[in-house]
Amino acid sequence: MLGRAAAEKAALTLRAAIRDLGKARIIAATGTSQLEFLAALTAAPDVDWRRVELFHLDEYIGLPASHPASFRKYLMERLIRPTGIVSYHLLGGDVESDAAVVADKIGKELNSAPIDAALVGIGENGHLAFNDPPADFETETPFLRVELDEACRRQQLHEGWFADISEVPRQAITMSVRQILKAKEIIATVPEARKAKAVKACLEGEISPWAPASALRMHANTTVFLDTESAALLSSRRMVQV
After folding, report:
1. pLDDT digits (tens, 9 = 90+) for 44-92
2. Per-domain boundaries in the chain
3. Which of 176, 181, 187, 218 is 20 to 30 A from 140 in CA distance terms?
4. How far apart are CA 88 and CA 78, in angstroms?
């Protein structure tokens, strides 16, 4: 239900951009929390996916695209192939030097025209993309090389992407917070009880690098979709959409 509601809003944005501009440029998140949302979005009617340009949000460094946890693999299997998107930009993270070159190239493509929608989530530690706390709220660099904190790495393990914590990469390339906030619209899909503490900190606490996704409150056109479990700790339920 949550994923379908978020997908309906995202599809409206895509249709409007395609109608008014001739194409839609989007950023898409990955992870288990996005599965229902992406399944509903790819099934949405009347979206001309041939006119959608897709940008990658983040990727591990040192992980081949064939690995089950690769976000390139995730997007190919759950968004690009099901819809037939032909214009997409995926971060390559097999080795650090290649990752930096690819990130620089994609960053320039990203800023060549406005982004119509950023489709994101919120991590258990409050991260936005792979911007773990304390996140850099100041840099204008499109993509950053970051060290993943222990909470972030354990989330990836518990979601079933890796067999052991030792297998979870320690570094990643991520879109910066300021770059995400440049999108015309942000749609955040945040289900499940394990996200409840992060949701409360980011939506009701101080806007701070220590709660990276709190930066979403600085964007004038952001919608956060929650379910009753992820919203359970909020003092006000007026913002909750299920």
Report:
1. 999 999 999 999 999 999 898 999 889 999 999 999 999 999 999 999 8
2. 2-226
3. 187
4. 13
